[in-house]
Specification:
single chain, mainly beta, 7 strands, about 40% strand
């Protein structure tokens, strides 16, 4: 859902729930907010528009079930909660779109290992007897810059 605050500013909240995240038996709740701003098109060539968006989200998890992993204490493994954020700039030209994005989280390398099970994880981190007793560290999480090129097909605008 989204709400247009002004002609150029849109606010979009998100709320999601999963009863069995990644088939671990743990529940997960995600909530986020996105703010997008249509930037002035006078600064760009004709037929090109651009949009700036920022969002912040938070994942909260329950413990895994015995089928999804059991700690040494016999209970489910606690999955680490985390916050993520994103900033993006999208350029549109007719049906073409180019998105430039920056994404990051506050996950530690140890908690990244807990969530990803990275086979290339290395020891040397802070051990947590509840979910990472060897202190394995993963390099899969962290700041990322990405670019995506795509297109929109809208039959209403294609015409005969």
């Amino acid at each position: 859902m989204s709400y247009k605050l002004t002609d150029r500013i849109t606010l979009a909240p998100t709320l999601a729930y999963a009863p069995n995240v990644w088939q671990t038996g743990a529940w997960g709740t995600y909530f986020a907010g996105t703010l997008s701003l249509d930037l002035p098109s006078e600064l760009l060539p004709a037929d090109v528009s651009w949009l700036l968006s920022v969002d912040v989200g938070r994942w909260l998890f329950g413990p895994t079930s015995s089928g999804g992993g059991v700690s040494a204490a016999g209970g489910g493994l606690p999955l680490p909660d985390f916050t993520n954020w994103h900033a993006g700039l999208t350029f549109s030209y007719r049906v073409l779109k180019l998105g430039l994005n920056y994404t990051d989280t506050n996950l530690s390398k140890e908690n990244c290992y807990v969530l990803t099970g990275d086979l290339g994880a290395i020891p040397g981190g802070v051990a947590n007897p509840g979910n990472n007793p060897f202190g394995l560290r993963s390099g899969l999480c962290g700041a990322t810059f990405s670019a995506a090129l795509g297109f929109d097909i809208n039959p209403a605008v294609l015409g005969p």
